[in-house]
Amino acid sequence: MYKKTYPLSFPKDFLWGGATAANQVEGAWDADGKGLTTAEVVKKAENRRETTMGDVTKQSIKTAIKDHSDKFYPKRRGVDFYHHYKEDIKLFAEMGFKVYRFSIAWGRIFPQGDEKEPNEAGLAFYDKVIAELLKYNIKPLITLSHYEMPINLTLKHNGWSDRHAIKEFTRFTEVVFKRYRGKVPYWLTFNEINTGAWGFHETGAIDSDLNEHDQLQLRYQALHHQFVASALATKQLHEIDPKAQMGCMIARMQTYPATPNPTDVRAAQVADEQNLFFTDVQARGEYPEYMNRYFAENELQITMEPQDQKLLKQFPVDFITFSYYMSTVTKAGDKQKTVGNFASGGRNPYLEESDWGWQIDPIGLRVTLNELWDRYRLPLMVVENGLGAVDKVEADGSIHDAYRIDYLRKHIVEMQEAIRDGVELIGYTTWGPIDLISASTSEMSKRYGFIYVDQDDAGNGSLKRSRKDSFYWYQRVISSNGDSLE
After folding, report:
1. For the whole model, what pTM was predicted?
2. 3-state secondary structure of 305
3. Is 297 an active-site residue?
4. Which residue is catalytic, options 40, 132, 168, 384?
5. What is the DSSP letter of 280?
6. Can you list the domains of the chain with their CATH numbers?
7. Which residues on neighbouring strands pair with residue 247, listed in sequence order?
8. Residue 80 region by backbone torsions, left for phi larger than 0, else alpha for psi between -120 and 50, else beta
């Protein structure tokens, strides 16, 4: 008779923490030799249910470069983590963080992207950030490319659409791997790499003037170059710092069929494959067969060098990470509708949604964790999950964000259930432990943090940090290793 115990809760060494991106928190966009990046030329959105991340043209970039302010480009100012990092990390430590996920701004290390020597001031900044984290026994988890690359590489080579980007990226990665050897146990290559199928914000390649076919051709070619760069970076890391591990990262939006009709079930499966394609390449080391049909039916030709497939196979990632905010619905024959401002699919009548139209589905996180574990059998980490909401500051300065606590609690419960199902989940970093500039709309009023930052959408405010109710709640969650969720 088969009998085996199963885990009842989170492992003792579970990595609790939070996650941010350089272009959303750092600010100091032109300080200490930093170069302008693709994230800092995207104008803020006027409608919170829309995004301007795909509206970039050569002319809009020229206009942005001439504009030396942050009025229309809030990611340039962030929340000034650049000058507040000690204070912010101390607050993370007070919550009990075991890990902090952040990104290195490529433009701080190589301002134009193609210099032969790195910018020492940029490296020195991350020296200090990492040292501060280690002072509190917080493990750094670093994303190498989080929706930004030096804008010069867009202007010269149209970003990742040109294979030249691989050379510049791997020069950057080699420098930071050597600089932080022995200090950073976990690295990620590209943030939400699958969103490169949506265009500029992830690929750094201008394609808004192309027809649909040519857009797809350019985007998938750019993504192939990123796959190769990821494999080469993994090879570098294993050689330079053998104890460190490399992960991949996708935006995971669990997809359901709209009805039990087999045509809807199959349509949902196809839609899901368009996300799993990216982890298939980076974790299994090869292009999956189902993409052969997709490329053929869309008349796409991916140009590869002779060694590319061998590189992908030899240097897959060590673990898989993903963001999870919502799920979507797919119906056969329906054109993909926008859900919220950052995803495509239909609406689910059984789910509530945020003010930004993002449908809230905690159980979908358990479904996703089980599917990814069954498919890859690699350690998993949820590196983004959170609720963007408008917070009200009371007269006494308190912020009662019970809605955020409720959202996170429900998702943590489902993570625990997934662990009981047998999933090897090693960490959880909530998105935006401190309020930051929104990725999709560049607004400040879409707040995710446990820590409130006094700044409005126009950049006005003292930048004073203060603790929300959720700060103390997450502190209890971490100290109890997920046992205390009330």
Report:
1. 0.96
2. coil
3. no
4. 384
5. I
6. 15-479 (3.20.20.80)
7. 188, 319
8. left
